[in-house]
Amino acid sequence: MKPEASVLLRLAVPSDAKYLSVVHERAREIAQSNRFGAIESEQWALAVEECAANSIEHAYAGRSDGEVDITLALEGDYLCAEICDQGKAFEPKAMPPVADIKDLAKKGARGGLGLTLVQRIADTVVREREGERNVCRLVKRLPLNPLTDKEKLAAAEFQLRTLVDLGREFSTNFDPARVASIALASLMGHLTILRAAFLTSTPEGKVRVLASRGVKNVLSLEGVPWASVEGEGNSTETPEAALKVLRLDFIFRFTSGEERGAILFSQRLAGGEFGESERNLIHAVGRQALAALTGARAQEMRIEKARADSELQVAREIQKSLLPEVLPVIPGFEVAASSEACFSVGGDLFDVIPLGESRFAVILADVSGKGTPASLIMAFAHAAFRSLAGSLPPVDLLARISELIRNANKTHRYATCFYGELDASSRRMIYVNAGHLPPAIVRGDETIELKTGGSVLGLLPGTTFEQGEVTFQPGDVLAIYSDGVSEAQSIRDDEFGPEGVEACVRALKAKSAPEILRLLEQSLFEFAAGRAYSDDRTAVILKAL
């Protein structure tokens, strides 16, 4: 060790293999306490253990009367390990070159990779003979500091562009295998992964292998019960068994509507755990691929009828899959939402997105126009909110999304939007109203309209916004809705109006949020008296308990 090294651990163990577990655990603890993730810590511990095992097996030839000295220390930005013994001298020139892990993986090499793995895990491996001692030194750079907000934003925008590009590709492909192959290729490239497989569930509840790269024996999963992938049922197959057989390490499961899928990955070349943003990307790509598969299935079912009708149904299925099926639980609040398109597809969107630490984004937006063009802008805007929510202050977030919509939209369509970030612990909501109908908070006999914000999204360059703030009191009911609700017409051409929404919510404020929403929809139906509505209808009800 260098004189300036900061020693973290000195450990002397007998040359007996039963003590290797102690070496492993202490090395792993040291790595975890120095910013290494769980997987990287385990890899470092394995490398230190392997070097100690070499001393026991080769230097002492299995004798238990020797001693192995282990020192772990910090040298600047590096974690260092020094493993020493006084056993039989080794020949430094006999040390093998660093093997190519990619090549080993392709050849299917298994076992006997002790030193090769050590050389791969550590940045530097040095073995020397110093006097009467054999010395093995390992050096590994400490993980980088956490990403800055700017770096997180750049990563989020990169993921958004990836999702948009994949969406365009998926929209022109109705071959399930092709869709799955594109999804795998994109993820493997981003995450530096050598082997992966994409699975989906058949209508009969069996596994179907849609695509794989670099995975031997993957077809052994074909036709097994899907419950084995979920880790459910009485199947003798388990996810862990499947991963072991296929020499894979991770399984990610996701759903979209009635579709169920899973992606299996090998260890990353760079090692380490998948971060939150990477896991979000994997699930987003998986759900997007499943949505495309849903569309493909609908397409196949309707080819015989009419191509135009089939395409509209595909768009509707994809759009439905993008909207949340189940809203998250917000402590101290009840939330309910619904959306109904005027045509087969619509331009309304809503979402409730967890932001961590009891924070939630509540969104309702309405794209100008109707039908397929509006639905495409809706899907793009929804992906933008999902990718960027929580990464910027609300005013900056809406300014960024406004520019993204304007640059991606050549038809001059725009969107009105209400965006709120709720801190459930303090009951405080910061919001921006971008040209949307002012949502109303019904509080006793008082009505509070949330108007602060600015212009619509996507229409003008350089749009800026102001933010408002409101604190909820117990019993407050917030109603957010699109103009399809307030502009619903009776057979006499009367409009339901914002005052109709307010009056309905006020009369129902003692009920639960889902019940308020259900009875509001019933009131709209009775008001229209069977008259077809001419615009998309979307509403979100948030009630403070």
CATH architecture of the largest domain: 4-Layer Sandwich
Q: What is the CA–CA distance across the termini?
A: 61 Å
> In this structure, how is the largest beta sheet organized?
6 strands, mixed
- The computed structural class is alpha+beta
Poorly predicted spans = 93-113, 232-237
Task: Please give the radius of gyration in angstroms.
Answer: 29 Å
Strand content: 25-35%
The CATH first-level class of the largest domain comes to: Alpha Beta
Shape from CA axes? elongated
CATH topology of the largest domain: Phosphatase 2c, domain 1
Number of helices: 15
Number of strands: 20
CATH superfamily of the largest domain: PPM-type phosphatase domain
Report the average pLDDT across residues. 80
Q: List the domain count as a whole number.
A: 3
Estimated helix fraction:
25-40%
List the helices and strands and how they pair.
Blueprint: E1 6-14, H1 20-32, H2 38-59, E2 67-75, E3 78-85, H3 101-107, H4 114-121, E4 124-130, E5 133-141, H5 149-171, H6 176-191, E6 196-201, E7 207-213, H7 226-230, H8 239-246, E8 250-256, E9 259-265, H9 276-302, H10 307-322, E10 333-340, E11 348-356, E12 359-367, H11 371-388, H12 394-408, E13 415-423, E14 428-434, E15 440-443, E16 446-449, E17 453-454, E18 468-471, E19 477-481, H13 483-486, H14 497-508, H15 513-528, E20 537-544
Parallel strand pairs: 14-17
Antiparallel strand pairs: 1-2, 2-3, 3-5, 4-5, 6-7, 6-9, 8-9, 10-20, 11-12, 12-13, 13-14, 14-18, 15-16, 15-19, 19-20
